[in-house]
Amino acid sequence: MRVARLSIENYRGIKKSNLLLPKHGVLLGDNNTGKTTVLEALDLVLGPDRLNRQPPIDEHDFFQGVYWHDLDDGVEQAQPQIEIEATVTDLSDEQKAKFGDFIEFWDHLLDDFYEEPSPEGVDDEDIQEALRITFIGRYDPEEDDFEGKTFFSRSLSEAQNPVLFSKKHKQLCGFLYLRTLRTGSRALSLERGSLLDIILRLKEFRPRMWENTITTLSSMSVADDPELGINSVLESVNDSLKKYVPKEWGVEPHLKVSNLTREHLRKIITAFIATGDGTHAAPFYRQGTGTINMLVLAMLSQIAEEKQNVIFAMEEPETAIPPYAQKRIVHEVRNLASQTLFTSHSPYVLEEFGIEETMVLARNEAGNLTRQNIELPDSVKLKRYRQEFRTRFCEGLLARRVLVAEGATEASAFPVACRRLAELNPDEYSSLEALGICTIDAASETNIPGMAELYKGLGKNTFAICDKQGQQNKMLIEEQVELLLMHEEKGFEDMVLKGTTSAARKRFAAGLEWPQHLTERYPNPTISALESLSDFFKWSKGSWGIADFLAQCSESEIPEWLRSSARELKQYCYPSDGDQDAGNDVSSEDFNEGDPDGAD
């Protein structure tokens, strides 16, 4: 069983979305894109325990918080509704028998329902039974409250009275959503809907322990020892009460260990786990975060083994777990579940999924959420994409804005320059991190257009930074980026050394630990700091030498081209109200200047 398509309308930050979901997939996108909303929507329509919360939705679950329209010139308007529809395919024989009256047919090749007038067509191997389920949430003005119910979708249009998709129906679907809250306090408790409770229900095991436990606890009196003095205090309270109430009221306060109700015991009973090699044990939720998460995922694996037909939705399984364990978790859960949907920010999790399983989500200002498919340009081969995924591609997939840098020097030095400027003058500059920009090393100038094309195709804002380019490559880059930051020097190091001050060069040269071969060439490198540093930066290229230089500069010592580029990038990402030119072609190259302080 799996969800092949999910349609969402008017739910949280999503005005409208229609997503095709893979059998196993990972949802990517910048924060507040809608990844969690997608999983929460699935939980509303398929989760058996979500509707236990009354009401299941509230004001903030409606798009932009609008859940009611007043009369417009006396004309009644259709009131806002949350509508979430899941199309479930790969049904088991048990599900087909249970849901037979509402079965439809899904074409896996077209990713749509088969509605041809020819009944024989359903025998095609690409056509399978499917089920549509719809959650509807709305505001009820008569009750002044919110309500949410789940229905068989076909019954909404074909039946005189819509047919509810009940909790028992949802349990047959086997959808499980792993959230942080469940991980922290409920997994090994006996609360309704906890993982332990789910396992017990799957095993059809009902331990008749409540009567014995309540009887045992009711016979236990706390602090009976007279030396403690608690009972004597309670007796004095009781004596005082007798002055005001009849004896028949039967007060006599004493201490017990619980409310002695099943619901209360469900909340307070939890599993204890050994904290080391010794005999000491503590509540499971007091263990380390990584231990708790591994424990929860082990329980999820047991649920999958018991049920054999489970959809797992998991948020960030990498939390507090080392890389090798992240990869093992994803691999094992994929093998156990009929469908898995993850959100993640970990490259070790992401590289477990193929390109067709990686769902890059993007949401526009109107609230429309779409899935962007990863399409590699000709210059980026699949083998290279896989080999360099962690170091070159992953961060860009997770970001909203991408700056493609010509090489390692630009990729390391320009972010440092922006960060330094933001520290020195936060009103005028911003770090790339604050702008939501990640920097990707293209490894050569010829790779810039292809790398930018990849991220542009995913709906990212793309920028580039490079040395002076030939006209043809410059045009290729400009076709793929919104902003090109290009200086007029042959190398980034030359631009920095010529654009900084003599004092900055000498100060940095004096504090360096020079390699032997350069010491022999420049016995006193501060005398000819421009030449000696030029050789040093060439020798240390790619190892943060130029970045270290910029990190110790004052604002005036940072070359004007870098200051101008940092201002321009900030203005482009967050244009001021009075600026109508944000997004136009850049003119940073106009700021390329020589040494303001003369030769060293």
TrEMBL record:
Gene Ontology MF terms: ATP binding; ATP hydrolysis activity; endonuclease activity
Region (Disordered) residue spans: 573-600
Native organism: Marinobacter nauticus (Marinobacter hydrocarbonoclasticus)
Name of this protein: Putative ATP-dependent endonuclease of OLD family
Keywords annotated in UniProt: Endonuclease, Hydrolase, Nuclease
InterPro entries in UniProt: ATPase_AAA_core (IPR003959), Bact_Antivir_Def_Nuclease (IPR051396), P-loop_NTPase (IPR027417), TOPRIM_OLD (IPR034139)
Gene3D superfamilies, per database record: P-loop containing nucleotide triphosphate hydrolases (3.40.50.300)
Domain ATPase AAA-type core: 26-351
Domain (OLD protein-like TOPRIM) ranges: 397-467
Matches recorded under PANTHER family: ATP/GTP PHOSPHATASE, ATP_GTP PHOSPHATASE
Biased composition (Acidic residues): 578-600
